[in-house]
Amino acid sequence: MTYHLPPEWYPQDAVMFTWPHENTDWAPYLTKVEPVYIEISRQVLKRQSLVVICHDEAVQKHVRALLNTSDINIGDMDTHQLYTFVIPCNDTWARDHGPITLINEQKKALSLDFVFNGWGNKYESSLDNAINKSLLKQPAIHAEYKAVDLVLEGGGIEVDGKGHLLTTEQCLLNPNRNSKLNSKLSREKIEFELNQHLGTQKVLWLKHGYLAGDDTDSHIDTLARFAPNDTITYVQCSDESDEHFDELNKMEQELQALRNCDGLGFNLVPLPMPIACFNEEGERLPATYANFLIINGAILFPTYCQEKTDKTALEQIHKAFPQYDIIAVNCLPLIQQFGSLHCISMQLPQGFLA
Q1: Vertex 193 angle, CA 191 and 197, to 5°
Q2: Residues 6+ apart with CB under 8 A from 70
Q3: What is the pTM of this model?
Q4: How high does pLDDT run on average in the chain?
Q5: 77 found inside a domain
Q6: DSSP string computed for 249-275
Q7: What local confidence, expressed as pLDDT, does residue 69 receive?
Q8: Residue ranges with strand state E in the chain
Q9: 17-71 confidence digits (pLDDT tens)
Q10: At 187, which CATH number?
């Protein structure tokens, strides 16, 4: 039975969060960031189940109380459920420490537990790296479990379900991820590992593209994303005075030159660059419209209280996903910790839950 990583728009059982708590860097921002989690939870539970990792029983009790008193409308009480599991965690970035779940032709699910090393040992991550092993032991989880001795974060890869994987050299060829494989920065070795584990056929590399304030070494999910019908939506910078102008224009040229397995190019849908956002210390924050989450029938789309730019971005994403409801979510609180909507979530495809 051959497994492959489905695209994010494949039907989903659930979305996974790892809830922020007082022992994380979110402590000063909890009152501002929890309403964002609640709003995303509300939208998810209308359409599918929600899996929440809770650091301890106190956090679990708190999460259940929050979601039970926040006018959450669960779409189908028979199939949409809120699951909370007590598993210790360092931080909240489920996209990068969550399970990467494959499916096969029989629609059985296999969750791969790659190594998470805190984006190249920048941060303590031992608890986050152990989440998947504990999660996949829960009776409610139907997916099989497989540990993979390879450092890989979900935010570092994009797939289209047609054999293509999109990523950046700055992340996947970085010696801080897989030093044994990357001692000579071997693209061929990384490509072999990715294709073998994820069931892809062709790795598409981007040499250029970054966001100020991003400490993931240029995760692809902040820059360019696959959409149905051979489409890629990506961040475009038209302001020559912006520090991103040169890099993002070079990235755009690379995207225009990409060819699929049949030798054809991709349809490209540009997203505007948000107006620069800064924290109280004057650091630029990695605001990006590419960091959206696809769920069943809807796109949860990050906005940043920029009326004109947000409106343009919403119009553009509708071109890439014309059959989906586009739901704007204010993500200004999220980027205070240098990530956005897609970064805090991990989709769990059909077959993951029992």
Answers
A1: 120
A2: 38, 41, 42
A3: 0.96
A4: 95
A5: yes
A6: HHHHHHHHH---TTS---EEEEEEPPP
A7: 74
A8: 12-18, 49-54, 82-86, 100-103, 109-115, 144-151, 158-159, 164-168, 202-206, 224-227, 231-236, 267-272, 277-278, 284-285, 293-295, 298-303, 325-330, 345-349
A9: 999 999 999 999 999 999 999 999 999 999 999 999 999 999 999 999 999 876 7
A10: 3.75.10.10
Amino acid at 165: L
How far is 244 from 169, CA to CA, in rounded Å? 17
Write the CB contacts of 61 (distance below 8 Å, at least 6 apart in sequence): none
CA distance 314 to 163: 28
Residue 252: both structure tokens together: 């755009």
Q: Are 331 and 302 in contact (CB under 8 A)?
A: yes
Single out the residue of 137, 135, 217, 119 nearest to residue 170, CA to CA: 217
Measured torsion, CA atoms of residues 50, 224, 90, 330, in degrees rounded to the nearest 10? -60
Strand 267-272's sheet: what is its strand order? Answer: 224-227, 231-236, 267-272
Torsion of CA 24, 25, 31, 32, to 10 degrees: -130
Phi, psi of 311 (to 5 degrees): -60, -45
* Total domain count, the chain: 1
The pLDDT of 127-139, averaged and rounded, is 99
Distance CA 127, CA 316 (A): 38
As a whole number of angstroms, the distance between CA 18 and CA 39 comes to: 15
Q: Estimate to the nearest angstrom the gap between the alpha carbon of 354 and the chain centroid.
A: 23
Per the structure, the complete domain to which residue 194 belongs is given by 12-349
Q: What is the DSSP letter of 141?
A: B
**Does 3 map to a domain?**
no
Residue 96 covered by a domain: yes
